[in-house]
Every structure is written in C-alpha cells, then in structure tokens.
Amino acid sequence: MQERLAKAHGTQCGFCTPGFVMSMYALLRNDPTPSWKTLIRNFQGNLCRCTGYRPIMDGFKTFTEDFQTCMRGQCPGGSGCCKGDCGASIPASSNHTPVAPSALSDADLSPFDPTQEPTFPAELQIKCETLNGSRKFTGRRLTWFRPANLAEAMKLKAEHPHAVFVSGFTKIALDMKTQTTPPTHLIAIGHVQDLASIEWTDAGVTVGASMTFNDFENLCRTAILKHSEHPSESKMRMFHALLETLQRYGSQQIRNVARLGGAIAFASSTSDIAPVLHVIGCSVTVFSTDGHRRILPIDESFYLETGKSILEHNELILSLHIPFSKKDQYMHTYKQARRRDCDIAAVTCGFKVEFDEGVIKNIILCYGGVAPSMVIAKETSKHLIGRRWDEDMLSVACECLNQELVVTWVDNQVGAMLEYKQRLITGLFFMFYMRVLNEVQTPVVQAPIQSARSAGKIERGLPKGSQVYEVVDSNQPADDPIGRPLVHMSALEHATGEALYCDDIPPLRGELFAGLVTSTRAHARVVSIDTQTALATSGVVCFVDHRDIPGKKYVGPVTDNEAVFAVDEVESHGHIIGCVVAESRETAREAAATVTVEYEDLPAIFTIEEAIANNSFYGESKIKTHGDVAAGFKAADAVLEGTLRMGGQQHFYLEPQSCICVPGEKQEMNVYISTQSNTNVQNWIAATLAIPANRIVCHQKRVGGAFGGKEVQCSYAAIPAAVAAYKTGKPVRLIHTREEDLSITGARLPMLANYKVGCNADGKIVALQCKIYLDAGRALSLSDFELWAVFLATDGCFRLPNLHIEGICCKTNLPSNTAFRGFGQPQGQMLINWILSAIAEKLELPYLQVIQSNLRRQGDVSTFNSLIESDGLHICIEECRQMSHYEHQLAAVNEFNKKNRFRKQGISLQPCIFGFPICFKSLNQAGALVHVYTDGSVLLAFGGCEIGQGLFTKMIQVASRALQVSVDKIHVSETSSDKVPNSTSTGGSMTSDHCGGAVLNACQILRERIDPFKERDPSGTWEDWVKAAYLDRVSLSTTGFFRPDGLEGYDFETHTGNPYNYHTFGAACSQVEIDCVTGDHVVLRTDIVMDVGKSLNPMIDIGQIEGAFVQGCGLLTLEELRYTADGFLSTRHAGNYKIPGIVDVPEEFNVALLRNSENPCAIYSSKGIGEPPLLLASTVFFAIKNAVRAAREQDGLSGSFQFDSPATVEKILLACPSTLLPSTAGNGAT
C-alpha cells in the first residue's frame, strides 16, 4: 500500500498520508479486492488539503477488482486500456505523452497477496482473557469503567448516578473537549454481549443497541439480498430506507465504532437516523437500574430538545425493534448538508406513504434540523389522507408544510439557514413525491420516469482523468533528472509514518508545555487576570503574558503593529492573553481553562459594511489610475454597475501551528517550528526577547501544510513558546489544538467590491472603475500588500485602457487575516471575471467571446507596466477549448437544460495569468550552501522550506544536473537559519526559482573546482575526482546566491518599475450539474492546460495544479466562515468547517502541461506553479452561476442576479426560482 501510494505521487506534505494508509489497510483486511465505489466510500472520513485526492486514489485503485480486470487485458476499453481510467479524455498530440500514475505495470508494483497478513505488533495485542473481565481505569480527572455484563453496568450506574454510558464514544469524546464540566465517570458498554443480540420474528427484527452502524448496514444488505426475488420482498422496504440513511451516515471510521443505541439516545436535532426510525415505526426497549423495562416508540415525544430525550438518567437502551413494512407502503429518507459526505445535516427527513387502491391511506412526514427536536407534520398528513398521489396532492402538501413547519430555529452547528431550510422542507418532499411516482405501478398512479429522474438526488459517477506532459528529449542523459517525474523524496517516509514533523520530536529532558489563554470577547479592556487556581494546580510552573516580555511587545512582517500577547486590550475572540506553562500538555491546557479574565467590553466591528459605516480603516485608500476614465464612460455603448462579495477561507493545514523552543547558554535558543519563514521567526523572537538574532537558530525539516498561513501566523506559537522558555530556562513545547488554530490565526481576506464598467457593443471594456474593501481583521499584517495584489490581478489577463481602481483595508474585531495561496489574486481574478460575466449577460454575448475580446496579447503592457512576454494566454485557451471539446459540451449542456426542469448544467472556460517573481525587489533573493563529502555524497541547504510542494525534490534534481551526479548521492536534511541566513519566506510560488538559482550557482562553483581533476583522470569516477580535490586541499563546500536579472520591482507610490519578469499562463474549462431542488452540485468535468515552461518535475507540478484547483473549489463553493453575533468563530473544527472531500473533486479531471514552452527567466526554463491553478477554480463558480441562470430563465427570470462567493448549497438553491415548487411541478417540463 505504502509503495503504491508513493509511486502514484499520492503525497505532498505527507501529514495526512498515514491516515489514508490505515484506512486502506482496514479496507483490504475486510475486502481484498474492493470495487471502485467501495474504495471511494472508504475514504469519506479522510481529508487531504494538498493533493486534490486524484493521485491518492490512483495509487489505491490498483487494489480494486476493476483495475485488476484491466491488468488482465479485459478492460472494456480494449487495446486502449487505461488501467482503471476507462473513458477519460486524453488529449491527442504528438508533442505530449499521456502519463497516468495509476497505469502502473506489474513490474512497478510489489505483488499484493491478501493471505500474507503483516505481523500485528505484539505490544498492541490484547489477550482474549483480558477482554472478558471487568476493568477500571482511573486518571486524574476521569474514571473509566468497563463492566463485564449488563448487570454490572447497571450496578455501576446505580453507584455513580452521574456516570455516562458510552459505546462507540464518537460524540461524547468530542463534547468533552469543549464542555466546561465534562463527565468524571464513564461506563463503556460497547462490548457487552447482552446488547449485541439479533432476533428475527414474524413482526420484524430486534437488534441490540451496541450494534455498530457498519454491522447494521451489513445486516440490512444481507436481508435485502436474501429476499430480493422473494414474494415477501416488499416487507423489506424498510431496509432500503435504512440503507439510504446509512449511506450518508458519518464516515467509514465512524460507522465502524458508532452504535445504534448511542445515536438514538444522543437526541440530535439533525440526527440522520431518527426520522427514518420514526417513519418505519421503530421502538426501543430501555432498562433502568431498578430493574424495570419499558418499550418506547421513537416519535416526537421521545425527543424533547437538542441533546435531550425522555430517557431517565438511570435508563439504558437495550435494543431497537424494526417492524417489517407492508406491501403498499413506500418510504424514503433524505439528507441535505453543505458537503456531500461526512457533514452535519441542514435538514434530514423521512417519509412514508401507504396506499389503498391508489388513495393515500396513511402518510408520515418527519423532519430533523428545522426545530430543536425532530418534528412530524401531522396536520399536513391529515390533509393528504384520502387523496390520490398526483399534482393536486403535491400542491396541497407543499402549501400545508409551509404553514405547519415555519423554520425559526438556528442550529449553532449548521448556522442560520432559515430560508434555505424552509425551501428544503417542500423540496425534499417533492423528491419523495417524484420517487414514489416512479415506483408505484398502478393504473391510478402513472410514473413519468424522466421527470422522476430529473428530480432525484444527483448521483456522482466514478472518477477518471488524465495527466499529460511533454517527455524529455531522447538525447537527454538517462541520469539527468530534470523534466522527469521523480517521486517526492520523502514519499515513502510519508506513507510509512516515519517522516518527522515538529511534534514528532521526542520530549526533551525537563521539557514543559504551554496552554493558551485566549480572549472570549471581541473587543474589550482587560481589567484583571486571575491565575490563582491555575497556579495552584499540581504540575503548573508559571503563567506567562506580555509582562514577561523583555523586548518588543509588538511585531509584524512589515511594521511592528500586532501584539501577540494582548497588551491591556483584546481586539478579537482568540486574541492570546497569556499561557500556562506546566509539566504536561494536558495539565497546561486544563489549567489554562481555569484562568478567569475580567473584561470591560468596548464597541466591536465584525463586517466590512460595519467598518465602512464606522470609518474603521487602516490608513488611506490606495489608488491606481490609468487613461481617461471619464472619456471612456462617455464613449461606452453600455455602462453597468454592480457589487461582488467574496468570503474568506481557513487555511486548514493538517499540521497545526507548532513550536518547540530550547534555551541554551549565552542567551542561545534553538527553535523547532512549523513555518514558511525561519528568518521571520528568528527576527521576531530576537526582538521580543531583546537578544541578537545570531543567538536564535530556527530549524524546520518539513511542514504539514501551510498555504500562506505559516508565514506570519506562526508567531502565535513561536513567541509564546519562546517567552515561556526564556522565563523558565527550560524547553517549552506549544502545539495548537485544531480549535485554537482556527480561532486564533485568521484566514484569507474577505472582499467587498463595487464596480462601474463601460463597454462597446462587442463587449470590449473601455472604462472600469472599482472600489475594493478587504477585511484585514484586528491587525494589518500583510493586508496592504495583498490589496495591491488584488489590483494587479484585476488588471492581469485583460486590456483595461481606462482604469481607476481604489481600495482600502478594513479594521475589524476578528482575528488578523493573512496571506493565503494566491495572495489577493483570487479576489482580483474573481472580480474581473464577474465584470466580464455581467457584460456578457447585459449584451447577450457568449461569455468566452467577451473574454477573448478583452484578452491581452503578446507585447501588451499592463497598466502596472507588466510586459506580456508570450501569447501563452491564447495558446492555453485554444488548447483547453480543444481538450475539453468545448463547443460540443456547450451544446450538450444546452440540450440537457431543455430536457430537465429540476436539474441544470453549466459550463465555463476561463484563462489565468500569474506574474513572477514577487514585485517587491528586496524579496527576490536566495542563498544556498552545498557540501561535497569525501565519499562523493552531497548535502544541500537553502533558505526555502519544504511545505509539501516538493521543493527538496526539485532542488536535488537541480543539483544532480549541475553536478552531473545521480540523485541518490544528494540529500537535503533541513532548513535552518544557521545554514542559510536572511532567507525570504517560502511563498509566492517563486521558491523553486530562487533557491534553484542559488543551488545552481553553488554547484557551478563546485564543478569548476572539481572539473580539473576530472580532466586529469577522465576515466575516473565522481568519487575519485572528489577525493583527489580533497587531497589537493580544494574546498568542497561553498555558498550560492541568486537574484533575478533585470527585475526592477514596482514602486506602488510612484507607480514606476516593472513588477514581473515572466508570467505563468493557464486555462480551464469546468462543467457542473446542480440540483434546483436542494442546491447540491457536482463538478462533472474539468480540463486544465497550464504553461509551466520546461517542468523540473512534471508530476510534482501536476500535483500542485490539481491540489490548488481543488483548494480553490473549496474557496468558491464550499468553505464558509461563520461567526456568532458577538464575533465568535463557530466554524472552528472539522465538524462544521468543511474543506473538499474525496467526492467533491471533478468526476473527470484532465490536466495537461503546455508543450514547447520556454522561460529564460527561471531555473532550467521552468515556471512557478503552486498558486496560479487556484485561480482557475473560478470556472466551477461561473459554471454553477450559468446553471442557476438556466434555471431562472426557464421560469422567466432573465437578466443579472446577485450570486456571491462561495456558491454554497444554500446560495445555489436560493438563487434558483422559488416558483419551481409546487405550482410549476407538473407543467409538462421535465
């Protein structure tokens, strides 16, 4: 498994990789030849922020039966076998060679023998006799009981009335992290055999409450299969309804341990399981500590409110009874959430109808998520009984439902989605109505098959795709690695779990741990801090806050304007007030929770609109004017005005902010940190502690994801740990929890933009005026520079002859927002694309035609003096158009929309441009240090950090060519500030350019020193020449340095200079399908063409393209920051902040690198690639917008409409016409 994942290029930062490996291991233990669908479902609970999932699935699909069929030559694709990617569209070109990492031959793969099970570690094995008896585990604050049987469990409950029963422990474990008074006694009952029975009777089946959801699902499948062709098949319909629910229940990992009894007792308002159990007519048997049993139906009386049922504190659910269904009963369940898989429901529901000669005899409509507890629409049911299953009934049902169930309740986990939930109440019933139409085959009820299908849930197909790049010249030496798809040098370590991250460093002697105390107010004066209880806790050493800082209390990347430790005043929730230092991590966190802070609240600002109203800004507006805007508007054939809002995005790197500070002698300190900038951390710690920078050495081996979030925000771990280590004189470790990380560190800057644009009749822009607001949060950080980046991106791809653009950063009482992959360019590109879309709508022109009318050409100079050095934009668009079969797909989309009323498709093709390097001259430099040892091995060091982008691998490739030695002789150990000082932050997609130039420079110097010995002994080896040089006292170590030639930089005050040396170009086409009833969407296909010059490593670059694109899809369609009314971030963990999962990527995903591209401005003619592809995710957003427009036009709603980013399920549904249901449900359109 690990080898196949590595060879498929399925790792980048590697932090998530062991989790995927273990999920695959568990799957193969249970199913040695899984199907594609089983494989995909298996990874519902695994997240990756780097890869975009495609290479992970390519590695693991080699275990599937589908792939093995292909390998045996039985692929339905015949001679064009794609080894599991049957049907993928691979562009044909003599200049490309299609390469699919999934197409691994038998020679590439170690054979998989499912009979050869790896030895399970002895230290993890538990003897059977250990499991049979009762056990008790006592900790400092928790006692865990493991009773041997039910009688003992009930006895323990009687002795400890406040103890909590746990079975799967999937929910209570999460709650205990946030509860102020978590339970002190737990009674584990998941193993108790009395709760594991299965009993079949003529009335139904009774299952024990400790049955896992996975076992329950298998039971349902077995029962259905057994009765599939039996006359009693209809009595098994309840199992079909249960399976519909179980398919959407949690993840495979959760289903493996979560138990039925716990899920029922938990009483969640958004329970996936409760509605279906009610409509089926299930009941539970409960048992109390006094020996009484009672049977309780699962109905509205069972659930009182969120988290509370009618169960008494001394009662336990023993079993669940599931009655068989009747012949004329039809039942189905539905769940709609923000993300397709593994998400909390916005609305969940179960419906059952029973007919008597085509007339409704009984009907049950049950909903979750619309009130504090499950609700049943009884009044609506009364109105429907006696009616036929037709459109009149549907109309009455929708009207009654809207009157009976009015959503006013807000779920803190899901957020305020009142109107959306209200639409879903009738929309989900409509889907049930259409499905029953399709199932009921009587003369009275006829099923319009196509209508029913078009109103059903969108089913995602199996993934496929292609990766295409230009092969190296046949004359290139075999041992020259440049341009070859070398596997990431740490891939195997990632896959085996041997790769070390910051918190993997073993504890040091005397090491202490820091637990953060953060603000619970958005803006307040700190009146007092009471640490008495914390300091009295055993194991606590001290409390640290701003008063312990000997040097600067304010730091920053440009100006020192942010207090990491709040000084007298907190300016956002999560603002660090101090930290408790203790002998263990748990003690530090628990003691920190006891620190009480007295506040005096101050006025707070939470939105851009509030900042505008209160004139809350950082400095003055920034302005760029070009041409004569007033004259341009006068000459325009059409003038449009509008607004675009774009939300923020959490970085959600999987390794949280982490730091270990180890003090030494003479004020020395070694800092081990997860960061993008050792130099920033070094300087900030030195300034904070008032010691010279040469005493601080920052080390970093690899980072488990960063995306810009560890360039500045790493100070929130570094400075508290450093001050604590300075105060105590001992090593201090500070690792943020996920909740702390998301609450403290800020996000991508949200944007509000107002625009006015003038254009000609052909869509060409003649004048553009914009006012841009960015939400910087409580500290300016890098936001000023990001604002300029928005300006540059707005002006990037398109000719803007007359431009006035103005912008300002807003000061709000939210955490300081910061750099994120793309750094302002996604916002700028979205703005200009939105404007072009508005022009196309207004003039009724094809969007692609408007794009091409305004596109820059080779030789054009932007309003910021940036020369377009090639026609790469046009070439990428044309190749993408051909690769995606754009015209054919556009016609297919239009035809689909004519035939389907309740689903619509959209398609969009757009270019992107990204300038290099960073336009600030001083940042464009890099250093390297190269050692050659007498055995011929080479050690590289440089200032760039390995954050998953494959930097170390690429630098080894660069050194290999430059030194003409094989890659296995070259090693990179770490990035550290004592090896290469004054390094530029790793970001801006320029680190390979700069570090590559520095490594090349150093290697060329070394080669010049070694070459004379090669000339003397031409038949010798590299080792011979190195040894000879050493014996001749020639230095085999040197530094290298690089700065780009000809780069002037850009002065944003005088607007002079040249911001870029070259550009990376790209184009993408995306096709989507939306569900107009639920707001759900699927990306059917994406084709990307990127100009990366001569790629140093094409598969690493393709991995960056796919990962950036999927991350961009998260930004524009899924990820949403939600705050409470007082500014508290509610989306602060994986449970309610959803990044794209494995089923959120395009069904068909094709990536091609542009052929015959040169770039004389970067190392070996390559180009930067980490960020540009993220901009292309806007194709998905605009494809969704086009699909929504098709739905609106169908109902006569023409013209422009507001549709802000992100395009969540909520926004999609609310943008679709509300008249779709019920009055238009049967007007003949399907």
UniProtKB/TrEMBL annotation:
Signal peptide annotation: none
Cofactors (names): [2Fe-2S] cluster; FAD; Mo-molybdopterin
Boundaries of every FAD-binding PCMH-type domain copy: 137-327
Entry keyword set: 2Fe-2S, FAD, Flavoprotein, Iron, Iron-sulfur, Metal-binding, Molybdenum, Oxidoreductase
Entries under InterPro entries matching the protein: 2Fe-2S-bd (IPR002888), 2Fe-2S-bd_dom_sf (IPR036884), Ald_Oxase/Xan_DH_a/b (IPR000674), Ald_Oxase/Xan_DH_a/b_sf (IPR036856), Ald_Oxase/xanthine_DH-like (IPR016208), AldOxase/xan_DH_MoCoBD1 (IPR008274), AldOxase/xan_DH_MoCoBD2 (IPR046867), AldOxase/xan_DH_Mopterin-bd_sf (IPR037165)
Top-level taxon in the UniProt lineage: Eukaryota
Family of the protein in this entry: Belongs to the xanthine dehydrogenase family.
Name the UniProt record assigns to this protein: Xanthine dehydrogenase/oxidase-like
Organism name: Priapulus caudatus
Gene name per UniProt: LOC106814476
